[in-house]
Hints:
By secondary structure, the protein is of the alpha+beta class. The protein has helices at about 5-40, 80-95, 145-150, 155-175, and strands at about 50-60, 65-75, 110-120, 140-145, 180-185, 200-205, 215. It has one domain (about 50-215). It contains 4 helices and 7 strands; from the N terminus they run H-E-E-H-E-E-H-H-E-E-E. The radius of gyration is 32 Å and the shape is elongated. Residues about 210-215 have low confidence and may be disordered.
Amino acid sequence: MIPRYQTILFSVLLAASAVMGVVLWQLRDRAHQRLLSNQDSAPTQAPQVAQAEQATLLVANDADSSLLTQVQSLPLSQDPGARARAILGKLLDLYAAPGAAHPVPGGANSIAQVFLMPAPNLESPSASPANPSDPTSPQLAVVNLTGSFAAAHPSGLETETLTLLSICGTLHANLPRVAQVRFLVDGQSRPTLAGHADLTRTYLTAAAPSEAARP
């Protein structure tokens, strides 16, 4: 026979367990409702997509060693460096396409980075660079190409020079403040692009194509 005090204790524990179960269920239900409420009230934000803008490309043509202007509509960032990289990427995509007038493999992934900074005074290297806060001051663009692009680029002074001049001209056409361009390969200085065109010099974007390279 079960003692009376054990029966009472068991009944109390059973009742307490039932009450706790009800409380826990209510707390869980309230938490679920709050979660749903937060999800419903949170604004749905569409991912930001860059606006499509017109970009001017100076596309090299091996048939007559010319640079032909071509206008493309591209989604472009407002950040100048990212903008320059996207535009140059499109230019190199044209060169990598079948039947290109200036065939060069690699495409957009050949542009690792584009850095913009105040342009130094080439006539007086010891002089202070242009004021970066001046919206009209000239800029130097540092174009970092990938090693795979340089390794696969067709060798020859004319074809290498056309590639470099088309990059310089395209930068200046879309970012008029870019007056000078330097080239790196995998973040390092390199003597030539593919054995001929000099990468140790500064290219002047506003000069005529035949005069654009400056020692």
